[in-house]
Structure formats: C-alpha cells, structure tokens
C-alpha cells in the first residue's frame, strides 16, 4: 500500500513538472485550483522586460492620460499636491511612438507629496502582443523626480500569476505635453 502511494505521489509529481504552469486565458475556477495544486512543484522563472511608455498628459488631442481630480490646494501647491490622472498609455518596443505596441499601462497616477514632485503610481501593464499577450503585471510604487524610479511589481495575471519584482523607470524625454519613459522590469514568476 505504501509503495503504491509513493508511486502515485511520484506520478503526480512527474505530471506536475511536465505540465507547463503558463497559460493566458482563464478557463474557469477549476483551472485556477489545478494551478495552485501544481504550485509546490513549479519552478521560479526570472523574466526581464524592456519597453517604452508614451504619456501624453496635456494638449488638445489624443491624450493618453487625463486629469480627473484635484484639491482646492492643488493650484497653490509647488508640488501640485492632490492632482490625479487616469492613464491608458501605449507601451512600445522601441523609442518611437510608431514602433511595435507591446501593451498598455492602464491605471492612475497622483501627485502625492506636499514638498516635492512625486507620484503615486497604481497601474496594470496589460500585454497585448507577443509571448505575454493576455497577461498583466500590477505595479504600485513611488515615482519621484529622480534619474531612476524604482517601483514594485506586486502581482500579475496569466503567465504572471503571483509575480513579484522590480520596475525601474527612467525619463528619456519630457516637455509640457508629452513624456517618454524607459522601463526595465525584472519579474519572478512561475
Ligand atoms: C489623433 O488620433 C486620430 C485617430 O487615431 C488620428 O487620426 C490623428 O492623426 C491623431 N492626431 C494627432 C495630432 O496625433
Ligand atoms: C492577443 O490575444 C488576443 C486574445 O487571445 C488575440 O485576439 C490577439 O490577436 C492577440 N494579439 C496578438 C498581436 O497576437
Ligand atoms: C512636446 O514633445 C512632443 C513629442 O516630441 C511634440 O510633438 C510636442 O510638439 C512638444 N510640445 C511642446 C509644447 O513643446
């Protein structure tokens, strides 16, 4: 009996390691349950992503980020404290806005410091092409006016279920209407 149990456990283990953890579309709650059952046997992967985010937050047309709220003190605040934007920014492979679109950064950013220009970022990276099409990464972090801004990957969906990692952002260009941000992302997932 014990031998049989051991054999079954071994077979379950082999099936578990042979089955890929990755998948893009949810088939239902059973699929999620199965995924969690296999999780103890899953191997961690490290994936690196590199892309550019195009943010058009002012001007007359085709804004990708819109101002949705501000406080009565915002206009007088040197750090625009209280200003909130909702974004749906294209993420591209190359620097040019016309280069291949990999996905969108959807979420909000808010001016959240009373003493310096600093943003709270709460957004989903929604991948719409390539090997991560259909998967998302969720970022929550602080985005101050520094050469490099380190933000936290707090989770994900699809191939990025239970992801964690670091998103490093660097402003490559900005003026009164547009910003171009380079992202280097390192994610641990299964
Ligand atoms: C705004 O978007 C529309 C539709 O995609 C496009 O035809 C137009 O050229 C864009 N305008 C500017 C100024 O980029
Ligand atoms: C991404 O996935 C969607 C849904 O499965 C599909 O309709 C679309 O064609 C895919 N896009 C690319 C560029 O592969
Ligand atoms: C800001 O940069 C964008 C993109 O290069 C350009 O199209 C736009 O004319 C610039 N706006 C101003 C106010 O300089």
Automatic annotation (TrEMBL):
Residues 1-24 form the signal peptide. It is found in: Secreted, Extracellular space, Apoplast. InterPro entries: Allene_oxi_cyc_Dirigent, Dirigent. Pfam families: Dirigent. Keywords: Apoplast, Secreted, Signal. One of its GO terms (biological process) is phenylpropanoid biosynthetic process. Its main location: secreted. GO terms for cellular component: apoplast. Dirigent proteins impart stereoselectivity on the phenoxy radical-coupling reaction, yielding optically active lignans from two molecules of coniferyl alcohol in the biosynthesis of lignans, flavonolignans, and alkaloids and thus plays a central role in plant secondary metabolism. Belongs to the plant dirigent protein family. Homodimer. This is Dirigent protein. The lineage of its organism: Eukaryota, Viridiplantae, Streptophyta, Embryophyta, Tracheophyta.
């Amino acid at each position: 009996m014990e031998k049989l149990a051991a054999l079954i456990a071994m077979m379950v283990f082999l099936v578990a390691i042979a089955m890929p953890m990755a998948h893009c579309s949810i088939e239902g709650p059973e699929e999620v349950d199965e995924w969690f059952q296999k999780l103890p046997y899953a191997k961690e992967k490290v994936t690196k992503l590199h892309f550019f985010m195009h943010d058009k937050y002012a001007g007359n047309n085709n804004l990708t980020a819109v101002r949705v709220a501000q406080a009565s003190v915002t206009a007088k605040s040197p750090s625009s404290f209280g200003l909130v934007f909702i974004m749906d920014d294209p993420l591209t492979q190359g620097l040019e806005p016309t280069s291949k679109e990999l996905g969108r950064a959807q979420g909000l950013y808010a001016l959240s410091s009373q003493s310096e220009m600093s943003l709270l970022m709460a957004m989903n990276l929604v991948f719409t092409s390539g090997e991560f099409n259909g998967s998302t990464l969720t970022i929550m972090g602080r985005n101050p006016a520094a050469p490099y801004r380190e933000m936290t990957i707090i989770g994900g969906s699809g191939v990025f279920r239970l992801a964690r990692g670091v998103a490093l952002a660097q402003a490559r260009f900005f003026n009164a209407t547009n910003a171009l941000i380079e992202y280097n992302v390192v994610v641990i997932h299964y």
